[in-house]
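Shall we go through a protein fold together, starting from nothing but its sequence? Please make up or recall a protein chain and show it to me in full. Go ahead whenever you are ready, and we will take it from there.
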Amino acid sequence: MYATQPLLPLLARTFSASTFAVGLTVTAPTIAIALVAPAVGRFADRVGLRRVIVGCAFLLSVATALTAASTTLTQLIACRLLMGVFTPGVFAGTVAYIHETWPPSRTGRATATYMTGTIVGGFVGRALAGLIAADVNWHLSFAVLSVLHLAIAVVLWLWLPVEPATVHDGARGFSRASAVSAAKRLLRNSQLRATYAIGFCVLFTNVAMFTYVTFHLAAPPFGLSTAALGWLFVVYVIGAIVTPYAGRWIDRYGHRVGLASAMGIGAVGALLTLMPSLAAIAAGLALTSTGVFVAQTTTSSYIGAVTTDDRALAVGLYSTFYYTGGSLGGAVPATVWNVAGWPGCVALVVLVQSTGALVALTRWKSRGAQQHLHEPEIEAVP
């Protein structure tokens, strides 16, 4: 998804393009996700979550292969846009799948486990792209990622169980009118609206931090190479370790505590990156990414706590706001970067993080008030 982040300085040199232009390789897929996610979520609710997850996984491998064949920046951006079209089927489908197959008392841990997978995938994608591009070329980076996508799609096809609701009744309303009606009903839920706003803030901060820090670290006095920038994302491993424990924390203490803690950790990490030390910057990025992953786990879990029907559509709508935040996180800081450099970008990130925490603390229900929103427990699929 964000494999071009460590490649941005390289792509800028290769295509003689501006920071904003190469940044579109990050922004394009997030825009596509924001546009199509609700429709994909609605489709998954009707035809089956497993079918959509597996199908989109295969289509992602095709889109990634096309990306590897790009010869111009315009082609690269267009292929990245196509990747964004198929990504929501995996994300929205999986979050809804978790809430269909695990009891409410354990969905925080289950969501955290899924988020751990996305963290590891995010690190592998960025690290491989950076290392291969530095040693060979960026085309091969995406060729290798395409093969990995295909292998994962095959694994899902062979081993992912069908969710309990194996029969999806098309007569329930697969029309455009019914989809719009369902979306309006979900948007009337004030808890979901707050969650969508928080999701916007979460991805904005992550994309802004990890897109523009590459320019900061590629410039003097650090002067990191493309390969070194790829290794920078090893800080994601810290998030992979912490996030499962965060899921248990959420299940025990509630979503508001989890979200506020996550945003606080992220803000401290962002401020650490202002220090003129590569070690301090790495530590700050580790804290920031960990905060983002815990926040994403919290918001994804909260959606299941306040919805019972059309969950994939609810997650699809969340994806629209989430990836709109990511799109703006890849574009808006470009202006700030040109005016105030990295300190300005950090100030923007901390402001957005604070906004997300404030929304959670003032708009989300406390743990006790959520209890009546939980659906009855169901037996988890083995």
